[in-house]
Amino acid sequence: MKKKAAKIFTAFIMTAIIAQGTVMVAILDETDSGLDVDAVRTVSEGVHLYREKVHGSLLIITHSTRILEALHVDETHVMENGVIVKNGGAELIKEINENGFGAIKTDNRT
Questions:
Q1: Which of 21, 27, 74, 101 is the most buried (most CB within 10 A)?
Q2: Predicted model pTM
Q3: Which DSSP category does 81 fall into?
Q4: Better-scored residue on pLDDT, 110 or 9
């Protein structure tokens, strides 16, 4: 429960910073980890607000595509052991959901 509260608090702080218009780049590192559907929605709303008010860039680091499905994604990059193994657009998220990360790793090694 504390982890969820901390994540939601982080989203709240991000929203407060966004309201001041001071951040041009936001990095969200596994913000969706351990969150339920409602909390992911809250974070997604903060991201939408950021894009609307600041028009800045976002780097979202995640092991799950759940939060990405709720957002407009311009580019997607898959990293393994510190190396980007695949680049794509929003369609890459669908590919990951359908085939898993294992298929992407295999695609790039053959």
A1: 101
A2: 0.67
A3: T
A4: 9
